[in-house]
Description:
- By secondary structure, the protein is an all-alpha fold.
- It has 22 helices and four strands.
- α1 packs across α8, α6 packs antiparallel against α7 and α7 (112-140) packs across α19 (443-454).
- The relative contact order is 0.15.
Amino acid sequence: xxxxxxxxxxxxxxxxxxxxxxxxxxxxxxxxxxxxxxxxxxxxxxxxxxxxxxxxxxxxxxxxxxxxxxxxxxxxxxxxxxxxxxxxxxxxxxxxxxxxxxxxxxxxxxxxxxxxxxxxxxxxxxxxxxxxxxxxxxxxxxxxxxxxxxxxxxxxxxxxxxxxxxxxxxxxxxxxxxxxxxxxxxxxxxxxxxxxxxxxxxxxxxxxxxxxxxxxxxxxxxxxxxxxxxxxxxxxxxxxxxxxxxxxxxxxxxxxxxxxxxxxxxxxxxxxxxxxxxxxxxxxxxxxxxxxxxxxxxxxxxxxxxxxxxxxxxxxxxxxxxxxxxxxxxxxxxxxxxxxxxxxxxxxxxxxxxxxxxxxxxxxxxxxxxxxxxxxxxxxxxxxxxxxxxxxxxxxxxxxxxxxxxxxxxxxxxxxxxxxxxxxxxxxxxxxxxxxxxxxxxxxxxxxxxxxxxxxxxxxxxxxxxxxxxxxxxxxxxxxxxxxxxxxxxxxxxxxxxxxxxxxxxxxx
Length: 509
């Protein structure tokens, strides 16, 4: 009995370390996203870019959708010294810091093309960081820890999103300088890199890279890249041949070019991998699609978050340009009430994940996500000031504080609170589901494949969202976001038994 009591704390401390690292890496994963999304949209809105252009610039997030294509290289190759997964995480964090520093030195109004190119590099590094962190978390946590791990991931992720997508707006207004904001974010990414280097525990020895010929992996990836480029070029030439103008002022024509080129790039790029051996990609895809119900699960992953992603794709331009709130007002609302509701949502989500069937949580939290979109619809219909102002008292909860009592728009607070609360709960269930679908040998590629398809909504609805909001207004836009989210709930109901099975069976890969 005495020996057991002595050993218990030593078993508990490694678990606490693992869970803290999961929280830290969730923060690291969420930090860059707004810097190529909401925060960047705010910067470009201040610079005077139009709504349609902002919609098309959401395609900067394409790397998040294509990340499963290079995830096999993460599975196949480990960097020296730090062991499996950890070396990639530290390298990506320091590379992100450098790329954000470069981004801060550019002017989007004077050189939008170069600015967008560097933003794409940031998105590529961020997407790659997501790949490694997701795989590391999947390998590190025991099946019984995945619900809590998912909740901590969401908490860290949403804290970072509130910082980079909310507090940065306050800084930008106070400092009158978005470049300075991005320099601060670059420094923070470097600090997180140092913490990750010191704190991350190594993975158990059983987690090893798949065995394959290194040169064939590199050549396979290069062939894939060439196939993607060739597909995009051929689609562009074909559309020009049929008489369409890529520089047309018609927003629908531009949308056709974007969607057709992306589709052709994917088809030809994946087709090339059948002729040129890219063994880790092919083996990992065979491993996933060999699982019973793989196609149906993939459909669920695509559809589950699409309604939420649609509503959020232009939320920053909506609040700044559509509702005419100031950057500081939006940032302050996100920093205080938004952040508090994020914490509450993640905690409540984790509590229910420990007690409910996963299918029940996925369905219930998905319904709440769609309902939260109606908060923005109500704001668009009623307008700023419709619910008056609410004086938020001063408080200090260490992680979030308000120095003095501050009046805020009541309807804005309601919409942001509902969105953050629902988003925290829905993502916690979603992360637990994705972790259960990943095999151990190919966890990076499996998770990257699933999470990449989950970003289809966030990335590809952007151009359509910009055109729709510009043509029909914000009220129609947010109502459409609810409609497009309903098929995901139907899929979750249809697959409820299979969803529950992921908590009991861990695929060997």
